[in-house]
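Annotators were shown the component list below and the corresponding predicted structure, then asked to write short factual statements about the assembly.
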Amino acid sequence: MYTIGQVSEMFNLPISTLRYYDKEGLFPSMQRQSGIRQFGETEVEALRVIECLKTSGLEIKDIKKFMEWCVEGPATYAQRKELFETRKTAVEAEMIQLQKTLDMLRFKCWYYETAIQDGNEDRLNDLMPNDLPADIQKLYNNAHS
Amino acid sequence: MYTIGQVSEMFNLPISTLRYYDKEGLFPSMQRQSGIRQFGETEVEALRVIECLKTSGLEIKDIKKFMEWCVEGPATYAQRKELFETRKTAVEAEMIQLQKTLDMLRFKCWYYETAIQDGNEDRLNDLMPNDLPADIQKLYNNAHS
DNA sequence: GTAGTACCTAAACCTGACTTTAGGTCAAGG
DNA sequence: CCTTGACCTAAAGTCAGGTTTAGGTACTAC
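Structure shown to annotators:
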């Protein structure tokens, strides 16, 4: 069993955030000892899942729903699996988006490196996409697809 | 030259958002024709960059700074390149984070699939990490690293 | 016995990124 | 002529996800 202060250190999260999560219902089965929160293995695992679902783009109120399903037992296994499948799809889509963004950023890095060397953008402005070096052209195409 | 309505359709962004971006200074050299905004090639390219920088996690006020640098000319090439380099690093870090998240999600999918088959989590609870199937163990380790 | 530390609550506040509202201009069509 | 549609502004409202504030409890150390 951990205190809120210990969990705050373990997860590098402000205490206020942990209390906020609790208030929002993210730890539906957390116990108290004369008013003081007791974080057990259940809550620590819950926090790992919270961080995962948050990173996946899920909102707090939907994370709360998931935590409630966990309390409801085996009847909700299918819904819980569905949720993770949906999140998986969302994250896969976001990674594709980020890959495009990354290629755009790499293209811009090359662009400004060239502009610095030239001292201006004149040559760059005259360049057609297929005048670009092969590797840079790939970044450009990927970023604009 | 495009009207705000045309750009809204092109980028699939609400007109209100485009006006908001303008108000925030994201199109520092946009022209007006008797009060009406005129989006030229500069503004369209600006919007592509805005979407890229926003996806990379940059705030509106910092995108504004970048747009101002663009107006200042060659003197700011180095700063602009620096900005894209920094964004590149940030996105690369985020992709690593998302890869971990994805492995956690895949692990949870496997977990609940197994729970559905078993009808309970008893067997899963007794499993030590290295009792897991090799591929699942990899997901688990990656997600918890 | 009182100062410090770790915990608690309710409620107000904050930030970023928009969106909505209320009111106005202007050109074209019936 | 008057209504419809596309544009305009300033200002207020919204929403998520916290954070801060103000005030209180309870144990420990000096």
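Statements collected:
1. The first strand of chain A starts at residue 31 and ends at 33.
2. Chain A is about 70% helix and 5% strand.
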